[in-house]
Amino acid sequence: MSQLLCSRLYLTATSRSLSFNSLCNKTGDKWKLSRWYTCYKSHAHGSTQQPGNAFHRIWSLTQRAVRHSPSRTSKSAGLRLILGPAVLSVSARLFCRVARCEADVNNNTPGEVIATDPVPEFKWHMLWEFVKPQLFALICAVVLAFGAAILNIQIPLMLGDLVNVVARYLREHSGNYVNEVKGPAMKLLGLYGIQGLLTTGYIILLSRVGERVAADMRKSLFAALLRQDVAFFDANKTGQLVNRLTADIQEFKSSFKLVISQGLRSITQTVGCFVSLYVISPKLTGLTVVVLPCLVGAGALIGSFLRKLSRLAQEQVAKATGVADEALGNVRTVKAFAMEERELQLYACEVDKSCEMNENLGGGIAVFQGLSNMALNCIVLGTIFAGGTLISSNELSPGDLMSFLVASQTVQRSLASISILFGQVVRGISSGARVFEYMSLQPTIPLSGGGRIPYHSLTGRVDFMNISFSYPTRPGHEVLKRFNLTLPPCKTVAIVGESGGGKSTVASLLERFYDPTSGVVMLDGLDIRTLDLAWLRGQVIGFINQEPVLFGSSIMENIRFGKPGATDAEVISAAKQANAHRFITSFPDGYNTMVGERGVMLSGGQKQRIAIARALVKNPSILVLDEATSALDAESERVVQEALDRATRGRTVLIIAHRLSTIQGADFICVMSNGRIVEAGTHLELLSKGGLYSDLIRRQRAEGQK
Ligand SMILES: Nc1ncnc2c1ncn2[C@@H]1O[C@H](COP(=O)(O)OP(=O)(O)OP(=O)(O)O)[C@@H](O)[C@H]1O
């Protein structure tokens, strides 16, 4: 409708010589946007006032500035009359809601929803490494995008030519109308066609480049994460790391594509169209130069509000997803405690909040689009009024006015997209910086770092010599204190003791998940820090813990995880040793049975036996059993224990156990307390001592009789 009205006005202005000077006064000086913005910033970020009050105060300042302006005109007053109350109420509500939403999100989980970590430095040389393989496609995309933008600058001028031809024909009524129009119209059509082709070309190339860069970054980041040592995963949440792989790389990819497509196009078009505007009419250009920045500034301000609202809404959606994720991931616990209703309420509460935020966002966008449409149409109107005056004084042709209108619309669109682009670029750079930061992290215990593999076959002797250790995440808390222990070749050594005494920590040091703060762990007389870590973990040490984690693939693949190149026969032999072959073959799909996510489709005892088979398939010299049977019922424990007894023959074994009944046959038993060995000997020797070990035995027997 507004376009129809404008075209009517355009026709009136170009056909009649009316004077519209009074309507051409500039209004940009009255809005005092810079003052408004400064006020908004100081109130929004520093003030202790209610955000809504702050907004009203800012608005009244603006109103006062408008009222006291000496050059008030009827147009600005009219605008203020129409827009003032509406904008005031809608914007104040929007402002309050943004502030409230932010407070909500901050209050619910402090420091978790809104990331406050300082943004690391963006590493351009790392980006270059990913862009280099796509350089040719990227250069082609840039050239095509640049070409499309240059052609876009030509369009207003050619449209003007076309209008001039029509106007001349109307004035002179000579020649054939179709012949007159055909030439410029065909040229214009050709230009549209070429521009369409260039646009298609650069978008295809750019999405290819973007996708490939993102895919390479994902692979590289995943490799970098897997390279890190266990201490890194103690300190970083899995969700955060997964977010780097997904959301951050997605954000970076979007920004990357946007900068090259929209950024390049918008800047080229803005500069080119401004030159065209100036060539067509310096006077009209002067008017545009005054009004446009004000509108773009206001647009950027509202846009930043909306982006903030959008970010908060996204974070709230992520929070709701987190609640659902946790409930579904732990569905057995939820059901066991009949907490379905509570989880539903929690989720519904988070979803309602996100719904409210998204509604606010939708409202904000609607207001923004309504206002910006109106403002742009007002500019068209003003240009037609002013252009009509120039036409009446023969300073401008109707075609030139048309060119000017189209070119100025292109400039407005380009400036608007540059302002949006700016925020996107900032977000993209910070996402990229975080991704590159993780990529360049070097593990303190590198998996492959030139460590050696001994030529001789191992005896399997292990010595913990004078070990002191604190976890990197808790440096002040010494878990092991000058700890000494020898695991003789082919013997079974058990560690027992109170909970939290440091038993599992000893196993972690042998696996070299961590390095001791002081002291050495020796394997066959060699410091394990000098040995090849992949060899040590992959071939020398087999590890079975209390809660075996299986992957969501087949039983065959899960056992083969212990030795990637193992033949089917090796896998089956390991399964037999682990007492697992019989139950596996009782399944309809046998070794191809899928075990479900984390092995949920198997019983605890079955999972444990597959884990034993997985450890045995690599035929390790050293076996570490960290409470391998403590989660099982009596019958499962019997079958698993039988498998373990067979598995431990001919190997050096370290058993960490709670249930003392399972380690009575060990060659040597150590009792740990507070990071030290306080008693050591065989079962009978320790019993005869009557110390901590016999205390523990007595307590467990008493508990068993209850
Ligand atoms: N990843 C870790 N980061 C920081 N501290 C840890 C970590 N793992 C364990 N600890 C701490 O180290 C101490 C020893 O833990 P460890 O797991 O070795 O004890 P444990 O004797 O095996 O206990 P339990 O018998 O209960 O399994 C505990 O105080 C524990 O809180």
From TrEMBL:
Keyword Disulfide bond assigned to the entry: answer is no
- GO MF, one example: ATP binding
Q: Where in the cell is it found?
A: Mitochondrion inner membrane
Q: Per UniProt, which keywords does this protein have? A: ATP-binding, Ion transport, Membrane, Mitochondrion, Mitochondrion inner membrane, Nucleotide-binding, Potassium, Potassium transport, Transit peptide, Transmembrane, Transmembrane helix, Transport
Membrane topology (UniProt) = Multi-pass membrane protein
Q: Which InterPro entries match?
A: AAA+_ATPase, ABC1_TM_dom, ABC1_TM_sf, ABC_transporter-like_ATP-bd, ABC_transporter-like_CS, P-loop_NTPase, Type_1_exporter
Where primarily located?
A: mitochondrion
Kindly indicate whether the keyword Transmembrane belongs to this entry. yes
Domain named ABC transmembrane type-1: residues:
141-427
The regions listed as transmembrane in this protein's record are: 135-155, 189-209, 286-306
Q: Which residues form the ABC transporter domain?
A: 462-699
Q: Which family does it belong to?
A: Belongs to the ABC transporter superfamily. ABCB family. Multidrug resistance exporter (TC 3.A.1.201) subfamily.
What this protein is called in its record is: Mitochondrial potassium channel ATP-binding subunit
